[in-house]
Design brief:
101 residues, mainly alpha, Arc Repressor Mutant, subunit A, 2 domains, two-stranded antiparallel sheet, 4 helices, 2 strands
Amino acid sequence: MTLEHDVLRLTRIPTTIRELTVLCNVPRRSIEELVEDLRLQGHPIIATNAGLQLCEDPILLERYVQARRRRMLSEWKGTVALRRTLRRMRERDELTLFGAA
């Protein structure tokens, strides 16, 4: 069996990433990447307080999708703010360099 098959089988009930790393004997990052790959393939794996699980309930899947969207928007806003800060820092450094001449 493949790691992909193992993860799909194990997530039929909520299973934490830590449990998956132990059961599959792979690093956490490998599990995280595989889970995202499985989602891209169309497998409805959601994260709950109890762990990762295959979701058969469209209402739960919709809630999870909405939560991911909110997180994505929040991260995007933070990234935009950091880019503005970076631009200001670079402008300040340029003013300092040219002002010192």
